[in-house]
Amino acid sequence: MKNLIAHLENSATVFLATHVNPDGDALGALLAMARALQTSGRDIVMYNESPIPAVYRFLPGIDQIAREVPSPFDFEAVVVLDCGDLERVGAVADLIPGRAKIINIDHHVTNTGFGHYRLVDPTASSSTEIVYRILKAMDITIDRAMATSIYTGILTDTGSFRFANTNSRAFEICAEMVGCGVNPYMVAQHVYGTYSLGRIKLLNMALDSIEISPNGKLSLMTLTHAMFAETDTQPEDVDGMINYAKRIEDVRVAALIMENANGHATAANGHKRYHVSLRSDGSVDVARIAASFGGGGHFNAAGFGLDGSLSELKGLIYTIASTL
Ligand code: 5GP
Ligand code: MN
Prior knowledge:
Elements: H1 2-9, E1 13-18, H2 24-39, E2 43-47, E3 65-66, E4 77-81, E5 102-106, E6 117-120, H3 127-137, H4 144-157, H5 168-179, H6 184-192, H7 197-208, E7 211-212, E8 218-223, H8 225-231, H9 242-246, E9 253-259, E10 272-280, H10 286-292, E11 296-297, E12 301-308, H11 310-322
Parallel strand pairs: 1-2, 1-4, 2-3, 4-5, 5-6, 8-9
Antiparallel strand pairs: 7-8, 9-10, 10-12, 11-12
Helix pairs in contact: 2-3, 2-4, 3-4, 4-5, 7-8
Manganese (II) ion binds next to loops.
């Protein structure tokens, strides 16, 4: 941590990025870290490849997140947040010059250990919790804007203090953030109380799509491009839906297959790109399953991308069921 902080403090220009299809933790960590560096006099650029989900657009500073890669790319430090591997930032991964000093801040158990400086702690509730620790170590005064990002990151990554990563530090930090001026009701209203009608209709389709494996231990939810088109929704609107499939009695693993929203075939053989999310009831390590398909994540929440046809993919998911 000392070397990481020394490098950050010695860098006048910092590029900060987080994973594609960002969640509350990715954005909370990005915004809090960037604002802390900005208020202590550094030039920063925040980057994310994907559109910002509507429910997070209230976060202070969110409008400053760029979707274009700066050119020329010349920063003294590159901070990568909430990414188990560098490729999770998207296409920009290939554009980061070899000489750039990469700082890897993350809490995924499958983190590959990329970068020149690392603070990877799988016992942390969230990447935002790690950013909080860094801010404290840097003696940054946490203002209300930073506190709102930190609070939102921890709140969402712990599923409102319900998931297995909920620890005492999550409560302590959030209580401190409320002391810094965060309004918990306001945050909850934005994150959980302002869904579009299309999102609710999509939820209806998602619930209707649930199938259970013959042994009852795996549930499968499927979201197709046609469903997104019919409800005028985006992949960001799927956030949290898999938890309904996970709640079913006797289910150990819930899987959500999502067709990438543009719906275009990626190969001449008609194969499409899918993202698979996995959730466990705590008895199965889904990070290991996801890693065997080239993805990663946490013990209870993981994911991977795959090309293929929907029927092939379902067959593959059912082979997982038979191992449970
Ligand atoms: P989700 O299912 O919500 O997309 O992701 C669950 C967890 O798995 C998150 O912590 C996320 O970062 C991780 N994850 C999801 N997809 C991938 C992937 O393709 N590669 C890796 N390394 N991690 C993933
Ligand atoms: Mn996270």
